[in-house]
């Protein structure tokens, strides 16, 4: 069970890759947020999301013996 759980946690690392894989999806100006076009704030939003998913994957696969 532990092995399958850690493998599932590693799949979390694929989410940011998929979210940023196809630039034409987010290469638009609207909706703007605080004056930033969607293109920029969408990518910047992925920075903390990716950090959190990486932390979760790391904690799930770490083996403290």
TrEMBL record:
Q: In the record, which residues are listed under signal peptide?
A: none
Transmembrane feature ranges:
9-26, 38-58
Does Cell wall biogenesis/degradation appear among the keywords?
no
Claim: Membrane is one of the keywords in the record: yes
Keyword annotations for this protein, in alphabetical order, are: Membrane, Transmembrane, Transmembrane helix
**Protein name (record):** DUF3311 domain-containing protein
Q: Which organism is it from?
A: Rhizobium loti (Mesorhizobium loti)
């Amino acid at each position: 069970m532990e092995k399958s759980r850690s493998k599932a946690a590693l799949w979390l690392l694929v989410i940011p890759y998929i979210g940023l894989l196809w630039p034409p999806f987010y290469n638009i100006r609207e909706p703007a947020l605080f004056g930033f076009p969607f293109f920029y704030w969408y990518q910047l939003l992925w920075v903390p999301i990716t950090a959190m998913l990486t932390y979760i994957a790391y904690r799930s696969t770490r083996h403290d013996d």
